[in-house]
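Review form for a predicted model. The reviewer records the input and the model, then writes brief findings.
Reviewer: anonymous (R2)
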Amino acid sequence: MPLPVLSVAQMRQWEQASWDAGRSEAAVIARVGACLAAWLRRHARRRDRILVVAGKGHNGDDARAALPHLQDQTIRLVEVRDPEVALPELERALDDRPDWILDGLFGIGLNRPLAEPWCRLIERLNASSARIVAVDVPSGLDADRGEPWGAAVRAAVTLTLGAPKRGLLHTAAAAWTGRLEVIPDIGLIPCPLESELQWTLPEDFALWPPPRPVAGHKGSFGHLAIVAGSTGYHGAAVLAARAAQRARPGLVTLITPASVYLAAAAQLQAVMVHPWSAAHPLPGKYTALLFGPGLAGADVPPEIRDTFVRLWRHAPVPIVADASALDWLPAGPVPKNTLRILTPHPGEAARLLGTSPAQVQANRPATLRALSEKFGGAWVVLKGFQTLIGRSQGPVFVNPSGNPDLAQGGSGDVLAGYLAAWCAQPELQKDDTLLIRYAVWQHGATADRLSRRHPAWVVEDLVRELGRARSSGAAAND
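Model under review:
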């Protein structure tokens, strides 16, 4: 199950409900310490040096609780109760050039500006070349506002506890949180609270996609039509088609302007390729449609846009609008009980709403709601750091997978093709929420897998590896 994104007050309420139910703070701290140590053992090499910086509160207790589980590592602990007293010891520890720093100075309870000695100590940590792993929240960062109390640790990774804190998801907070990961099971009772924002866990997909029926055939798994490509952009069509194959629909057909038909067809084998014709029967035999990747050239026939608008308004099959097709979207209602999906990045979202990318990023959930409302309640995949998935009503899901290596041309085309191919499979359309979330998660998780193994990977590698990320616990990090 996804996790609710909580405020500090809600997190305190959950903790109190756990204590009232008989759970103990000591047991939770011990479990957190074991989980922190397990994460470090998975990511740190045996010879790596780890510096643990622990404050006097429960955040420091969590960090200290990791020590008994790291006996096989080179560990140094610096206790920080008075920053001026502790700074010389910290300087000596940093002179040993640790590879990792476990930040346990302050947790979510910090609610006032830090005094200058604390700021100096935090800035000294930030000046280190070590990878900083923050416990629950980067020390000094307000967990509700996502802004520093004068100074904040700049973590490479933040291991937040129990559930994500609301402020950690603010766009500006990324400069301090780095990669945000959640340790969900820390010994509290099941969370009794709800939230508009829901954090996706890899375990949400442990039973998805379901096994294929033994007697299944090509017709069982649908037929995706992709309308994509133009002069200078035919690669987008090829990438979308190849990515679609990784979701294994029964059939994939690429329909592209005649000017790039040969260039696209020469790079594809199992995908059927046809030059665009105004007489082409869309939707016809297709069970889902994707419009947009690479439709940016001057040679795109105007009939493609007209056909897209007509189908968006009336076709009974799922339609994914990506890239250039986003600019063709007609505002207003769509047919009831039909699946419509938009996949904008922040710049495209800003154009669609007549605003700026900065305003989009300032409140991404509100942007998603506004887009969905404008386009008939369609699903919106608002791409970017922590991609959001949702509609004008209901929960908005935060996708945790993916990394900056996805910021290269073609990665969006891959996502569009992969997502649309899942949409084409009739049996899977019955749970469109899980379908969309899985496609987005798998796309990002595949990028994470590649970045750990092949730091210089390119988009063609993403297509080849797509679908191999596993969705169960630590295995999801393989």
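Findings: The CA atoms of residues 210 and 428 lie 8 Å apart.
Further findings: The longest strand covers residues 49-54.
Recommendation: see findings above.
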